[in-house]
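Entry 14. Structure prediction run on the chain below.
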Amino acid sequence: MGQIVIRKLDDEILEIHRRRAREKKRSLEQEIRELITVSARPSRDDIVKQVQDIAAMTPALPKGKTRPKAEDLIRADRDSR
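Output returned:
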C-alpha cells in the first residue's frame, strides 16, 4: 500500500480532525484514511452519467412495442427446462 506525507497542514484543521477521530474512537490516521477513501468514490453526477451512457446503448423499441416483464422472462426460462 502507498503512503503519503502532507506538509504545511494548518494546525486548526489538524486539531479538528483529531477531535473527530477521538469522538469516533479511532486514530487520526484512520480518520484521514476514511476521508480520502470516501472522497475517491464516484460522485452522484459520475454515476448518473454512467447510467445515461448505458441507457444510450439500449436500442429503442419500435413504436407501440414494450419490453417483456422480468417475471415473464423468468417463467419462460423455467418452462423451457
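The mean pLDDT is 95.
Filed with the rest of this week's runs.
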